[in-house]
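User: Hand in any protein.

Assistant:
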Amino acid sequence: MLDPEQLLYVYELKGGVPPPFLDLEGLLGVWPEADYTYLFFTSPADATLKSFFRHHPEYSLTSHYRLPYGHWQQLAAQEPLVVDRFKIVTSKQSLKLSGSEILLWIDPGVIFGSGLHPTTRGCLRGLSILYSEATPATVLDLGTGTGILAIAAAKLGAQQVDAVDLNPMAITTAAANCERNGVKESVRLIRGDARDQLPEAELLCINIHFDFLESFFQSSAVCHYRWALVSGFLKEKLPEVRALLPSCAVVKEPVLEEKGWATLLLEIERERSDSSL
């Protein structure tokens, strides 16, 4: 876990194909995002990148900046962070847990998903609600990030969780967090695009931005699952999301709302699902 005051040096590059691995001094990781690649360092890397550009002329530097790690990650001022039955910490510590409480030890690195964002908290609450009523044995977590939802599902009783993310930094971070939480045997990490052919599961967790949801719900893909947990959009977008849902998906009321963001727990009606496929 980085110190909140540790400076991050972030370099934005355009062009080329993001390499899966770079052996550069002080490099924390590589973050591809659309046409750009972001390199995170723990110290200034101007000289290192000057040499890199000589060997990789397909890249160009478009921007660079520095900021404290705590500002980037927006870490909780006080831990543990409590969300429903989950207690979330970012560093190893001794905590007293009641019989129903679940510890999530999440080191986010530079990946989002420490539990602070309202959509993450909404999904955790949704998982807790669902697993108090049913026990999905298989789960698919799209856009897993730090792996927090995949880990939470495994600790709630899922036997197999497939966690998918396009970002190689996310896969590395999630793998370390699965190890910390003792669920590496239950969680299979997959680097891939959420638009690709996806593994089968009973429960789908999808906490991705509205534009992706808009594309995803144009197909009947959600009808292949038994339940779905959907977040990543502002409350003001809720009518649009409801309108996008196929007839097989029934929203469990009330909708989970927090700080202007919404999370839906969907139950897939089999008869409607079968007739729509």
In short: The chain has a mean pLDDT of 88.
